[in-house]
Design a protein that fits this description.
By secondary structure, the protein is mainly β. It has one domain: UDP N-Acetylglucosamine Acyltransferase, domain 1, CATH 2.160.10. The chain has a 9-stranded mixed sheet, with no helix packed on it. A hairpin with a 4-residue loop joins strand 20 and strand 21. The radius of gyration is 15 Å and the shape is globular.
């Protein structure tokens, strides 16, 4: 008996799905992906093979998680956030290895944000909705804009409520 939920209209090819994880309609998880416990993978999410997702991660609708992306525990990814894994993409030309992007524990990515390849989003950091992240983000900072710039350092929940 499975101890996770896969919606009948989802396609989950991976066998490495953690306890109490929920994968909703029209999500597609490729066979090499690893997804931790108590995650929520919403409608229309695509997760490629060389992906590791920690525990208690929420990935909202319309997000694609490409090869080379690691998501640590307690991360939130807002709807339609976009990740890239190739700095110079060309049709039918693939790098030997995709650049590694890491989302550290407890960070949040706002809706429609774009994360360029090979970056680290720091522990507890927050990327504002619609931001374009072109450089790695330090721990506990808030970034907004295009290109994303730091607007607050060492954030707390109270700081976020004031934004």
């Amino acid at each position: 008996m499975k101890d996770f939920f896969i919606h009948p209209n989802a396609l989950c090819e991976s066998t490495k799905i953690g306890k109490d994880t929920r994968i909703w309609a029209f999500a597609h998880v490729l066979p090499g992906a690893v997804i931790g416990c108590d995650c929520n993978i919403c409608d229309g999410v695509f997760i490629e093979n060389d992906v590791i997702i920690g525990d208690r991660v929420t990935i909202k609708c319309g997000v694609q998680i490409w090869d080379g992306i690691t998501i640590e525990d307690d991360v939130f990814i807002g709807p339609n956030a976009t990740f890239c894994n190739d700095k110079f993409p060309r049709s039918k030309e693939y790098p030997e290895k995709f650049l590694l992007t890491v989302l550290k524990k407890g960070c949040s990515i706002g809706a429609n944000a774009t994360i360029l390849p090979g970056l680290t989003i720091g522990e507890g950091a927050m990327v504002g909705a619609g931001s374009v992240v072109t450089k790695s983000i330090p721990d506990k900072t808030v970034v907004v804009g295009n290109p994303a710039k730091i607007i607050n350092i060492d954030i707390t929940q109270k700081d976020v409520e004031l934004l």
